[in-house]
Amino acid sequence: MKRSVYYIFTGLFLVGLLSLVKEDKVIYNGPDRVSFGVKIGLLPTGGLTQYSIFYFKNDLLVGNQPIGLDHLIKIGTGEWPIPRSTIFSNIFEKNGLFTDTLTDGTIVDFNSAFDSLWKIRFDAHPFEHHLGDGWSQGEMRPSLKQQLYIYNRYGCRCYDQDYFVDSSFFRLLKDVIDPAWIANYKAMR
User: 78 in a domain, yes or no?
Assistant: First the structure.
């Protein structure tokens, strides 16, 4: 009899204890999607551009991770899997990059787009003047008219801490190789 009372009390104690423990629900189990971004300026790394991969869950930004351009290209073209997943996806192609061809069949070189990003911020390359002139009407920052244009078109303030992210990043890469866009941007004073 004493044993059965012991088992009953032990059982009730465990049931009570388990009812106090809250269920741990998994809120974040990996990104729904990833995208890329770039910030342009005089950065602590000594460079003029810093790339990052951005993680979204239910269309909300849940994190980002700085990456080098070589890694961005390998992930973006689907050569490497998307970090935090086992998925290989050509993100560039899904966003209309690396798919354009000229009439003679040659593929448009978007590497020149990456090489030109500094030009929207500076009037001349701050470290390597032999690289030519930039498109900015300000020495270290675009003119106020250019800054307003960048903010309205890309949602970016074009300061050292602000990224061109997601669709703005891909639109910017397309724009900086478009001669009409370049001429229009340079004309803003």
Answer: yes
**Sheet of strand 49-57: strand arrangement:** 60-67, 49-57, 33-40, 164-165
Any domain includes 143: yes
Chunked mean pLDDT (size 10), the chain, 189 residues: 67 61 47 90 91 92 93 92 89 79 54 92 92 92 95 87 94 93 96
- 168 occurs within a structural domain: yes
**Cα–Cα distance list, 131 to 118, 122, 158, 169 (Å):** 11, 12, 21, 23
DSSP alpha helix (H) spans, 39-163: 69-76, 91-94, 111-116, 144-154
DSSP structural state of residue 170: H
* Two structure tokens written together for 116: 């030109």
The DSSP symbol for 133 reads B
The domain total for the chain is: 1
- Which residues fall within 8 angstroms of residue 76, CB to CB, at 6 or more apart? 36, 90, 91, 92, 97
Q: Which token pair is 130?
A: 């032999």
CA 135 and chain centroid, separation: 23
